[in-house]
Amino acid sequence: MLALVMHEAPRLVTDYPVPSRAPGEALIKVLCAGICDTDLQLARGYMGFRGVLGHEFVGEVVEADDPRWVGKRVVSDINAGCGECADCTQGDGHHCASRSVLGISHRDGCLAEWLVMPEPCLVEVPAGVDDARAVFAEPLAAALHVLDSIPAGEREVIVLGDGKLGLLTALALRGEGLTVTLVGHHARKLAIAQRAGATVALSVDGLARAPVVVEATGCAQGLAEALRLTQPRGTVIVKTTVADPLVVDLAPVVIDELKIVGSRCGDIARALRALSCGAVDPLSVVDARYPLDQADQALACAGAKGTLKVLVEVPR
Amino acid sequence: MLALVMHEAPRLVTDYPVPSRAPGEALIKVLCAGICDTDLQLARGYMGFRGVLGHEFVGEVVEADDPRWVGKRVVSDINAGCGECADCTQGDGHHCASRSVLGISHRDGCLAEWLVMPEPCLVEVPAGVDDARAVFAEPLAAALHVLDSIPAGEREVIVLGDGKLGLLTALALRGEGLTVTLVGHHARKLAIAQRAGATVALSVDGLARAPVVVEATGCAQGLAEALRLTQPRGTVIVKTTVADPLVVDLAPVVIDELKIVGSRCGDIARALRALSCGAVDPLSVVDARYPLDQADQALACAGAKGTLKVLVEVPR
User: Cβ(B242)–Cβ(A247) under 8 Å?
Assistant: First the structure.
């Protein structure tokens, strides 16, 4: 099959084997996939990933143990846990020590014609949510997961970074009615958040400190700025995953009793609800669409400075 | 009066002016003071502090606006807030932007014969708590404040660092009945925690990850070790204040969704209750006692590698 495969460098191949379905897994035909900054990092060698890239998709189930899945349009939690440990049985399995993660760790991803995922990871997409919106379920879930780290009662958030995730986080928090200030470097991107009711700024200069700051700059330096912008006893929610180590001055964290909280994947079903009711419309974030047989060009486009979301479509 | 004063270096002087009491403040005769690692840092130039060192004390009120204070034996919250901002009126004033802090910021400290503090900061010491224990109210409050950052339901804590604060934190958490593992480099200090029921270890090798880790090593490198020892979605509580910037690998914080929480001063009244009921007996942490006219030697002793708490006594 066609697939964008990371080996020593990312490469589009036509003869990648169609994945074979293990018991409990569904075979899914990919309809549309999205490219995320994590894919770009993995394509540069981050975490030593080998295999098919991509973890944002909407697809159609072709085969499954449970016949009710067949023919359904689905999105998926990207974490495939063991199903047996405490994290899987009592939690969401996102921290299962032996999990695989679609297109990120020990599992081929979705920039291909087909993929397999365990059936418990799947969520059916409502008819009213089209493919180009449904493909945002995974990154929107990650954006909405910020809400799980915002202390009860806080309604005012600064988001640092107007890249894909920062922008989507601003839209997600606006969809929940929070007061959002998005700080970025691109007037075109900030305008998207502004249309959704966010206050925007091209610089942190003159901004008042906020009780909650989301760090989504994608740069190691972003945290230092986030810490400076956070009120005493406030919370910095960190979304940036970069390979670079980070230099932080610890003293203000202790003196101001700040909280720094790492935030990764969210609840896919919650994201679908936000898409379905129109609380968040992510289409304004799409910059380009490519067919799967140009997925290598799609990756290059996504990696160009300033590009927002690039989608990869698979002909039905 | 006699006072240990930081100017370019710390110096014992005999002619420091007795502090004059502002409205709302109490004039207090110091009975006993303790030396903390923060004092040692300030004496090396940290934060550019100038004035009388010291912030751990028990004393007797000599003059106050409210005559009921006079003659009372007291300890004090070290943060003197403005009394008018939201943090002072709705919170504890520990983060009031215009606060002064006893012996740390814009306020002369307690390594002297006399000091002044606002009356609302004072807490009366119960008769059953002697001076050598009462002087621990401030550091024990800081140690017990760790409890405020432990998520509900968690009972298992690793404490990194067997210095004064790490050891006191281990004793404080044991006093609350938590399961504590103290990791340090000194068998003599670890034995103190062991007698209080803590598990102790000379190295992190082979330790299972815990849901809560307290970083009290006093070294910038301690946080990296604390992060490695924390379970996914767990909490690292940071007590170390050092001037050195710190290099952290951010990726595990995001991937494991860790929380890093700075923790500073606690509730002095809570500490007095723990001392009064015997839940914590800090006397085992005292390594030396000096009279005030040898406070410079006391500081040198406290700064020698391996020394635990040094007390400075003022003759009555």
Answer: no
pLDDT tops 70 at residue A243: no
Q: Which residue matches tokens 């290099």?
A: B247
- Which of helix, strand or coil describes residue B87? helix
d(C-alpha A136, C-alpha A143), whole Å? 10
The continuous run of DSSP H or E covering A289 comes out as: strand A286-291
Find the CB nearest A254 among B233, B252, B263: B263
| Mean predicted confidence (pLDDT) in A183-210 | 97
Cα separation, A254 vs B264, in Å, equals 6
For residue B34, the cross-strand partners are: B56, B311
Nearest to B262 among A95, A247, A254 (CB): A254
Q: Quick one: angle between helices B187-195 and B164-175, nearest 10?
A: 20
What integer pLDDT is reported at residue B243 of this predicted model?
A: 62
Please report the ipTM that was assigned to this predicted complex: 0.88
The contacts of residue B202 (CB under 8 Å, 6+ apart) are B183, B184, B185, B187, B190
Residue written as token pair 């005559």: B67
Tokens of A195: 């249309």
Collapsing DSSP states into helix, strand and coil, what is residue A270? Answer: helix
Residues of chain B found within 8 Å of residue A92, distances taken between Cβ atoms: none
Cβ(B226)–Cβ(B213) below 8 Å: yes
Per-residue pLDDT band for A46 (boundaries 50, 70, 90) equals confident
Using a CB-CB cut-off of 8 Å, the residues of chain B touching A257 are 94-95, 261-264
Sort out which chain A residues have CB atoms less than 8 A from B257's CB and list them: 94-95, 261-264
Looking only at the bridges linking them, the beta strands covering B156-160 and B179-183 are parallel
Chain A residue closest in CA terms to B223? A250
- pLDDT at residue number B221: 79
Regarding beta strands B79-80 and B100-101, do their DSSP bridges make them parallel or antiparallel, or are they unpaired? antiparallel
Helix (H, G, I), strand (E, B) or coil at A107: coil
- Contact yes or no for B223 and A256 at CB 8 A: no
At B156-195, the pLDDT tens digits run 999 999 999 999 999 999 999 999 999 999 999 999 999 9
Can you tell me the distance from the alpha carbon of A169 to that of A160, in angstroms, rounded to the nearest whole number?
A: 10
User: Are A257 and B232 a contacting pair at CB < 8 A?
Assistant: no
Contacts of B267 (CB under 8 A, 6+ apart): B92, B141, B144, B145
In degrees, rounded to 5, the angle at the alpha carbon of residue B306 between the alpha carbons of residues B208 and A255 is: 70
Task: Give the C-alpha separation, A293 to A14, whole Å.
Answer: 9
Instruction: Quote the CA–CA distance of B166 and B295 in Å, as a whole number.
Output: 24
- Give the pTM: 0.91
| The one-letter amino acid at B15 | D
